[in-house]
Amino acid sequence: MNEGGGVAQDVWERKYHLALERMERDEHDFRVTEEGLRRLVLRLAALARGQSEEADRLLDHLGDGLRHASTPDGLDPLLDALTEAITALERQSPLPIDPAHDVPQAAAIVDPIPAQEVDACRVATDALRQVLLKVAMMPALAGRADDLHAVLGQARDPEAIASAAQDLADLVNQERASLRHDMAQLQDLLAEVSGRLGDMTRYLVAETEHVATGDEQGRDLDATVREEMRLLAEQTLGATDLDALQAQVNARLSMIDEHFRAFRDREDERLATYRDRAERMKDRVEELETQATSLQDSLRREHELALTDPLTGLPNRLAYERRMAEIEQDVRDQGVVACVGAFDIDHFKVINDSFGHAAGDAVLRIVGQTLTRELPAPAFVARYGGEEFVVIFAGIAPDEALAAATALCETVAALAFHASQKPVTVTMSGGITRFLANDTAATVFDRADRALYAAKRAGRNRCLLL
Ligand SMILES: Nc1nc2c(ncn2[C@@H]2O[C@H](COP(=O)(O)OP(=O)(O)OP(=O)(O)O)[C@@H](O)[C@H]2O)c(=O)[nH]1
Questions:
Q1: Which residue, judged by its Cα, is nearest atom 11 of ligand 1?
Q2: Among the record's GO biological process terms, what is one (predicted)?
Q3: Is the CB of 364 under 6 A from ligand 1?
Q4: Which of 316, 348, 389 to mutate to test the pocket of ligand 1 (most atoms within 8 A of CB)?
Q5: What pTM was estimated for this model as a whole?
Q6: Could you tell me if residue 69 is left (phi over 0), alpha (psi between -120 and 50 degrees) or otherwise beta?
Q7: Ligand 1 atom showing the smallest separation from residue 460 Cα
Q8: Which of 248, 279, 306 lies at the terminal end of a domain, its last residue?
């Protein structure tokens, strides 16, 4: 009996434990679903807020429901409410809320997969970093882009990344506004120049007319004098007494004299006007020449600035990309030998964090100067962005390029840096690769970058060839 009672108790205990486990499993599933739903609602609310009053109301209702629902049964109606909200949005909103598309996403969220989220964050951060590298090429934005780069380095969650993206968008919009302003100024200047050219054209037209008038006046005088001479001849032939003849000749001669004087006065006046206009025109042409020269100078300066990194004075990434396009052609068409090196200061963040951004900037400047001093032309040295430099070794075989790069890293490691009166060692790693005939600028850089990161992994303060 006792034994039987013991067996029965075991059975009930097992059943009880199984039931408990099932309840715990159910509870866990419910929590996962609940969490997934909460995130889905948050995403929906962020996407749809303000799109439709009905959807806003439904989403609010849903948000409240989610806050209070604590049992699976309480959750079920919320699923219906969610479906309703999606349908309302589909009806009212132009947003691409396609259940066939979004529901699997929702399922992905319901599934607890933090690793994928982390990946998504990293992909977003990398994409932003790429944009930042481009922004950093604009001289006016380089400093702000570096700050954002630092912020992005700290960002760990989607909100922080989204806020960095917003800052970046603001930055780019500011630059666009300033470019628009510069463009407007340039257009004003061009309008002024073209106005002055218009003045010149009008002057030339007036001059041509003036000369024509001069010719016409000369022809008039000629005709008048001929007419006077003809009348004089007629009167001379018909004259009967000498006094009358003398009086008539004198009268004709005075007339001719009168015509000549009037003609000369008009000519003098014409010449004075001409001289005056020529003088004014000369001034304008000189003014225009001065403006054109200063415009050319400022365009040249702008061009140089656009290709120069403001911090180190080295060619920037844009200049590097142009040079790479030339080298790519030389390697492909003429079989020129060239290598590319990517260099990166080791643990640069620690320098910034320990001694401040200004000290970091000073290190970048000195390393940049060392690179140009140690690798004179035809090597081409540029700041690629952040604490990364690139070198194009033209006409040099890979082994020689590696030797030069290694010597360079040794020189950098031996530089005497001081911060707060204490010596600070700065080292650099590098990756070298040969520019092959079937390479593009991008593939060769990618290989050099991989060699660089292999050097970092191998312990830093060294160069590797790939
Ligand atoms: N002072 C200064 N810092 C910059 C500039 N551009 C980028 N940085 C900083 O450079 C640091 C780069 O850090 P990481 O990418 O983590 O690399 P690292 O610390 O050098 O580490 P390893 O490359 O792995 O050796 C970040 O802290 C950036 O903020 C700049 O123009 N001036």
A1: 349
A2: cell adhesion involved in single-species biofilm formation
A3: yes
A4: 348
A5: 0.49
A6: beta
A7: 25
A8: 306
| 351 touches 362 (CB < 8 A) | no
Is residue 138 included in any domain, yes or no? no
CATH number of the domain where residue 422 is located? 3.30.70.270
Lookup result for tokens 């890979």:
398
Q: What is the tally of structural domains in the chain?
A: 3
Q: Which helix (H) or strand (E) holds 69?
A: none
Residue 443 Cα to ligand 1 midpoint, Å, equals 24
Q: Tell whether the model's pLDDT for residue 319 goes beyond 70.
A: yes
Q: Which of 116-130, 360-374, 411-425 has the highest mean pLDDT?
A: 360-374
Q: Is the pLDDT of residue 139 over 80?
A: no
Of 236-245, 327-336, 349-358, 380-389, the least confident: 236-245
User: How many residues make up the chain in this entry?
Assistant: 466
* Portion of the chain with pLDDT greater than 90, in percent: 32
Same domain, residue pair 209 and 107? no
Q: Which domain holds residue 21?
A: 2-112
CB of 153 sitting under 6 A from ligand 1:
yes
- Nearest residue (CA) to ligand 1, atom 10: 349
**One domain, residues 224 and 327:** no
- Ranked by mean pLDDT, the top range of 119-133, 176-190, 304-318 is 304-318
Q: Quick one: 321 and 241 in the same domain?
A: no
State if residue 125 touches ligand 1 by the CB under 6 angstroms criterion.
no
Distance CA 403, CA 465 (A): 10
Residues 101 and 206 both lie in one domain: no
Cα–Cα distance measured from residue 37 to residue 75, given in angstroms and rounded to the nearest whole number: 9
Dist. CA 373 → ligand 1 center (Å): 23
432 pLDDT higher than 90: yes
